[in-house]
Amino acid sequence: MKKARMLMERKRALTTAISREVTGFRKWLFILLAVVTSKRVKVANQLYNLNDGALHARGTTFVTKISGNPFFATPIPALLTITTALADFMAAINAAVNRDKQLVEAKNAKRETVLNLLAALGNYVEDVANDPASAPATPAEVIESAGMRPRPFVARGKQVWEVFRGVFSGTVKLFAAAIKRGIHEWQYTSTPLDEDSWISLPSTTKARTTISGLTPMTYVYCRHRTVTKNGTSDWEGHDPIAVI
């Protein structure tokens, strides 16, 4: 009788252990599936529409939030590089207060440098946020800890305007919401402050297009608008994206 009771207790203990193992395995399986099937959370900073003072303030906030942040061990670009560029930008802003043409051009060049650096920093933050190693924090929490804004995933049919790196080097893919009886117009540039620098892509009836032949390790700015029987919409810009 005593032997039978011991066997029953061992069986119960073994069953409990197996149940715990299965539960743990299922938990990690669900986590793995969530990582594999989840949509990438993007950084939505919309920097190039900011005025000079707001851009400088935003960049300073990013540096402050990321400095010493455990999520960002090795920021790219280096924070010292960004801090130096921000200081040069502020000096150029102050120097151009009287609107001297040459000083304004110099200020705009400093602004473009800051925009490119902050765009690269945003790409770095986005990559870290979407790395499973950042768990248990969510991608949105990681992005917000850098002082940046996350852009939640929206179903393709409801998206207004998205830009993604292409599969092939030097390519960028553009997507917009579909329209009826109209066309999509697309433009891109590396110097958005120069209105004459915007390059037009062929208009499309489909809500997508691809830019090819871009130079790797640079940044490209894109914008999009629609033309329908009701008229032409305003250009809608997008954060710069790094070309690979």
What would your notes on this structure say?
The chain is an alpha+beta fold. The relative contact order is 0.12. It has helices at 2-37, 52-66, 79-95, 101-129, 139-145, and strands spanning 42-43, 150-151, 161-165, 172-176, 182-189, 199-200, 208-211, 219-228, 231-232, 236-237, 241-242. It folds into 2 domains: 42-151; 156-242, Sandwich (Immunoglobulin-like). Helix content is 43%, strand content 18%. The longest helix has 36 residues, at 2-37.
Chart the SSEs and their pairings.
Elements: H1 2-37, E1 42-43, H2 52-66, H3 79-95, H4 101-129, H5 139-145, E2 150-151, E3 161-165, E4 172-176, E5 182-189, E6 199-200, E7 208-211, E8 219-228, E9 231-232, E10 236-237, E11 241-242
Antiparallel strand pairs: 1-2, 3-4, 4-7, 5-6, 5-8, 8-9, 8-10, 8-11
Tags for this model:
Immunoglobulin-like; three-stranded antiparallel beta sheet; six-stranded antiparallel beta sheet; alpha+beta; 244 residues; 5 helices
SS-based class: alpha+beta
Number of helices: 5
Total discrete domains = 2
Order of helices and strands: HEHHHHEEEEEEEEEE
Question: What's this model, at a glance?
Answer:
The protein has 244 residues and is α+β, with helices and mostly antiparallel strands.
